[in-house]
Amino acid sequence: MSKNIKLIHPRNQITEIISRIYKRGMTTTSGGNISIIDDSGDIWVTPSAVDKGSLTPADIICVKKDGTIIGEHKPSSEFPFHKAIYEARPDIKSVIHAHPPALVSFSIVRQIPNTNVISQAKHICGPIGYAKYELPGSDELGEVIAEEFKEGYMAIIMENHGTVLGGTSLTDAFERFEALEFCARTILYGSQIGKPNYLTDSQIEQFEAQVPASIPEMDVVETPSDEVEKRLEICNIVNRSCEQGLMISSYGTVSMRWKDNDFLITPTNVNRWDLEIDDIVQIKDGKREAGKTPSRATWIHQEIYKNNPNINSIIMTQSPYLMAFGITDSYLNVRTIPESWIFLQDIPTVKYGEHFKTNTNSSIVENCTTALIIENDSVIITGDKLLQTFDYLEVAEFSAKSVVLGTSLGEMVPINDDQVEDLRKKFLS
């Protein structure tokens, strides 16, 4: 979906985002609803009782400012609270309501997830409100939700119901929705293997204070065919990562070595789902492509390439099961199955802040293993070809998932030292 959403009809915006939500398992065929209010005051909303997995733009309903309904179906039964939110908060232009499993878990135990669990979520989600239970589709539900939004919240847990989020655009609302559900999932998975640790507000401010634009701009940019090919490869891997739940809108950096120590890297503050070839930033001789702001992590990618000539691609992302280990003091032992150990060996964890430019002696560069976890922030995966690096990410996430799920069955029995030595001799010698 183009970043210039004003050029996309609300019908198309809604069907694109509901498709993402459904395919990622964050709503059901019948559950959830999305709306957009346009500049005329008309509200475009998902229909009632129509399969969320196969919605088309023609299915989207328009409720005119005067109450006239245009469309083939009835508007969502939850339309009253969408309307109440827009009346209470003129700055909100889009609303998402859904029942994603992790946030429903919080809603049924009547808790609010602490977004300080990962680096960027506090600023994306803002403070989280809490709306008491009222009958779905009722005016009373609209009233209690509107009251929460009047307090300034953009994200609300609905008691025994799910969540509702607002945004200045549908992209903004989805980014908030995705980040909040990710926090909830990470806390839940982390709680199965240990006790979640949270960042302080000052640690989060350190993350936000990084200024990638301080890298000087280059005067001339060359984009030969091999460079363009790498840009496309990065975009394809980022999109694939988003579709498979290995990356979210608000966090994820992918880079590829181009030639020598020059490389291409994803930008900052661009929705990962909507990344385009022109967004990719070229870094050459320590300078950035003019007019573009590269990832906050550019410096560390640059140092990894300089110090590790065998590494030609890097993925830095947040995936829920790996981050379960990133937010706890639990060690991820990948001696689960032969493939996991052969690809990954041991996965070290480093302290939060090791990835900031102020830490020029970062152990991330010195201990550049295939996979490395930064506490409460991300996982870094390195490799030769980008597809290979993506494969390592998948293997790491699957391994973490197996360990988390296995905790309910008993204590993990890893491959023993003799078996590891056999694998080393056969596959790594």
Automatic annotation (TrEMBL):
Coiled coil (UniProt feature) = none
Q: Keyword set for this entry? A: Lyase, Metal-binding
This protein's GO cellular component annotations are:
cytosol
One Pfam entry name = Aldolase_II
Q: What is a single molecular function from GO for this protein?
A: metal ion binding
Taxonomically, the superkingdom here is: Bacteria
- One of this protein's GO BP terms? pentose catabolic process
Class II aldolase/adducin N-terminal domain sequence ranges: 12-188, 232-404
This one is known as L-fuculose-phosphate aldolase
